[in-house]
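Example for tutorial group B:
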C-alpha cells in the first residue's frame, strides 16, 4: 500500500479540492461545490488531510472564528468535516490529524470546539475535550400584526446577504459568533434556501420555518443593530402560532422557557486561558461547522 501524504490548506489546488468535495459527499451527503464557486471558501476554512496519491482519504477541518462570550470576543477554532474514506478507517488517521491541528494552533486560541455524533463520545476526550450541554430556548407567542417581509433567494440575493452579514452584531452577547458570514452562506445555500426573509421595518434578515403544527423555528436573526426580539416575533408569527423555538442563545429572557437541548450531535470543548462558558447557552446553528 502506498504511503499516505499529509496536505493542508489546498483550496486553490483544484484536483485536491475536488477530491475533498467528493469525500464529503460520500461520507456526509453534503456538497461544498456551490459554496466554493461563490467564493465563500476562504482562508478561514483550512482542511487538514491525508491523501493517497491525488485522492483525499481523511480530513479534519479548522474553522477560524470568533466567539462572543458575555460580551467579550474570544479567539475560537471550530473543528468540522471530520471524515475518513470507508476503505481507510481503523488506521488512526483522524487521531493523527487532530494531533497535528493541536500542535499547529497551540497557544493560538481561547477555545477549540466541535460538534460530533454520540458514537464518538470516547474519542475527543483523549485530546482534552469535554462535553458541554446546550440549552434550548422556546416561548409561547402569537401575533395579529405581521410586518413587512421580503423573501430572499440564493439566486438573486446572495451578495446582499453576505455583505449585510459582514457588519452584523452577534445574535447574542451571552454567547454568539462573529466573523462567520461564510458559514452562514453555506446554510443559505445548502440548508435553508427557501427560508430566508428580510424584515423591512426591523432591517433584519431572519431564517425561519413554520411547521404544520404552527411551531416557528428561528434558525438565525442577522441584524446590524441591537434587535427588538418582540418586534421580530410580531413580524413573523401569526394568530395561529403556538410555540417559537430558537436555535441560538436568546438574551431577552422574559417569557422564555429553557430546557436541556437534546440533538443528534454533542458539543465538545477544549479551553485555554481559564476561560469559562455560560451555564446556559445555545450555539447558533448557522455558525456550526
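The residue assignment follows.
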Amino acid at each position: 500500500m502506498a504511503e499516505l501524504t499529509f496536505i493542508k490548506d489546498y483550496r486553490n489546488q483544484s484536483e485536491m479540492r475536488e477530491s475533498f468535495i467528493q469525500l464529503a459527499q460520500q461520507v456526509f451527503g453534503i456538497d461544498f461545490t456551490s459554496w466554493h464557486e461563490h467564493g465563500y471558501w476562504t482562508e478561514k476554512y483550512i482542511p487538514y488531510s491525508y491523501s493517497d496519491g491525488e485522492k483525499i482519504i481523511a480530513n479534519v477541518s479548522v474553522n477560524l472564528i470568533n466567539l462572543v462570550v458575555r460580551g467579550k470576543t474570544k479567539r475560537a477554532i471550530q473543528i468540522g468535516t471530520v471524515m475518513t474514506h470507508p476503505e481507510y478507517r481503523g488506521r488512526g488517521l483522524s487521531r493523527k490529524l487532530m494531533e497535528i491541528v493541536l500542535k499547529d494552533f497551540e497557544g493560538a486560541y481561547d477555545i477549540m470546539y466541535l460538534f460530533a455524533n454520540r458514537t464518538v463520545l470516547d474519542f475527543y476526550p483523549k485530546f482534552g475535550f469535554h462535553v458541554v450541554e446546550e440549552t434550548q430556548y422556546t416561548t409561547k407567542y402569537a401575533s395579529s400584526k405581521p410586518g413587512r417581509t421580503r423573501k430572499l433567494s440564493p439566486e438573486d440575493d446572495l451578495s446582499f446577504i453576505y455583505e449585510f452579514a459582514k457588519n452584523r452584531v452577534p445574535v447574542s452577547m451571552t454567547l454568539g459568533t462573529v466573523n462567520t458570514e461564510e458559514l452562514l452562506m453555506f446554510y443559505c445555500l445548502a440548508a435553508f434556501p427557501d427560508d430566508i426573509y428580510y424584515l423591512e421595518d426591523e432591517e433584519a434578515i431572519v431564517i425561519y420555518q413554520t411547521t404544520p403544527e404552527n411551531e416557528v423555528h428561528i434558525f438565525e436573526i442577522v441584524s446590524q443593530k441591537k434587535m427588538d426580539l418582540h418586534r421580530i416575533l410580531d413580524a413573523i408569527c401569526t394568530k395561529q402560532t403556538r410555540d417559537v423555538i430558537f436555535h441560538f442563545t436568546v438574551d431577552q429572557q422574559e417569557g422564555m422557557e429553557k430546557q436541556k437541548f437534546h440533538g443528534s450531535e454533542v458539543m465538545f470543548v477544549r479551553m485555554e486561558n481559564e476561560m469559562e462558558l455560560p451555564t446556559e447557552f445555545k450555539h447558533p446553528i448557522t455558525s456550526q461547522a
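The radius of gyration is 20 Å. Compare this with the pattern of hydrophobic and polar residues in the output above.
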